[in-house]
């Protein structure tokens, strides 16, 4: 699925409705369980959205980049955050309440359509993430993630059609797997000639072979 992003031409609506925020790498933007009362647009950088279990285990749901929105739980009245979000690198955000954004929705059909598309995209991603984490084995999880992330070039994540700039540790975090497990799977793929490994990069050489691993 193509990633839906807010075009820069629409940033002004968020800026008029809210205020700019700068977050340093590694800092929390919000925590699971907090009151959900603000929406965030990413103008620069990337954030990690993840769930923390009762025993402290973390499951990364998505890395979100420039032009994307997060904090959609604020669309629900008196809801709480279901996830924690941290800055991956230096991040520039626009933070606003849905109430403050409402007047601008009537001014721009494009803005309204983008918000609906973003919500639909989030639902699709979460259902796909659930399928991957529940039904796939470790080989299928890694193959699926590599193929999904590189399905379309994404300059804001430095991703091309056949190259993803993630370390083994970063892949492990995204997939909820042990780093040693991810390294073993990647090395197996490399030996088969399906991928090539460079420093903090995975280069896909045979998409068809990776795709054949995955349950429909």
Major beta sheet, specifics? Answer: 4 strands, antiparallel
Major sheet: order of its strands?
1-8-3-6
Number of helices: 7
Overall average pLDDT:
91
Helix coverage percent of residues? 25-40%
Describe it for me?
- By secondary structure, this protein is of the alpha+beta class.
- It is 38% helix and 23% strand.
- It contains seven helices and eleven strands.
- The strands form three sheets. It has a four-stranded antiparallel beta sheet. A four-stranded antiparallel beta sheet has the order 2-7-4-5. The protein has a three-stranded antiparallel beta sheet with strand order 9-11-10.
- A hairpin with a 5-residue loop joins β4 and β5 (58-64).
- α5 packs across α6 (179-191).
- The chain is globular and about 55 Å long.
- The relative contact order is 0.15.
Task: Give the structure's gist in a few sentences.
The chain is an alpha+beta fold. Helix content is 38%, strand content 23%.
Give the secondary structure arrangement, pairings included.
Elements: H1 11-17, E1 19-23, E2 28-30, E3 39-44, E4 47-52, E5 58-64, E6 69-70, E7 84-87, E8 91-96, H2 98-105, H3 109-135, H4 138-149, E9 163-164, H5 168-175, H6 179-191, E10 195-198, E11 201-204, H7 207-213
Antiparallel strand pairs: 1-8, 2-7, 3-6, 3-8, 4-5, 4-7, 9-11, 10-11
Helix pairs in contact: 4-7, 5-6
Summary keywords:
11 strands, single chain, alpha+beta, 4-stranded antiparallel β-sheet, 216 residues
């Amino acid at each position: 699925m193509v990633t839906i992003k807010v075009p820069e031409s629409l940033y002004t609506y968020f800026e008029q409705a809210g205020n700019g925020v700068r977050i340093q790498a590694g800092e929390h933007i919000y925590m699971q369980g907090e009151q959900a009362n603000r929406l965030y647009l990413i103008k620069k950088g990337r954030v990690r959205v993840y769930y923390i279990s009762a025993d402290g285990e973390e499951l990364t749901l998505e890395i979100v980049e420039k032009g994307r929105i997060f904090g959609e739980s604020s669309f629900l009245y008196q809801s709480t955050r279901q996830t924690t979000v941290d800055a991956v690198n230096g991040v520039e955000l626009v933070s606003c309440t849905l109430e403050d954004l409402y007047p601008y929705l009537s001014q721009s059909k494009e803005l309204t359509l983008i918000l609906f598309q973003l919500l639909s995209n989030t639902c699709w991603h979460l259902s796909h993430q659930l399928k991957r984490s529940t039904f796939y084995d470790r080989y299928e999880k890694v193959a699926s993630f590599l193929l999904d992330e590189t399905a379309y070039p994404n300059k804001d994540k430095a991703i091309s059609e056949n190259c993803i700039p993630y370390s083994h540790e970063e892949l492990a975090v995204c997939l909820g797997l042990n780093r040693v497990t991810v390294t073993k799977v990647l090395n197996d793929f490399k030996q088969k000639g399906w991928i090539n490994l460079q420093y903090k990069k995975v280069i896909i050489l045979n998409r068809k072979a990776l795709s054949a691993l995955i349950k429909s």
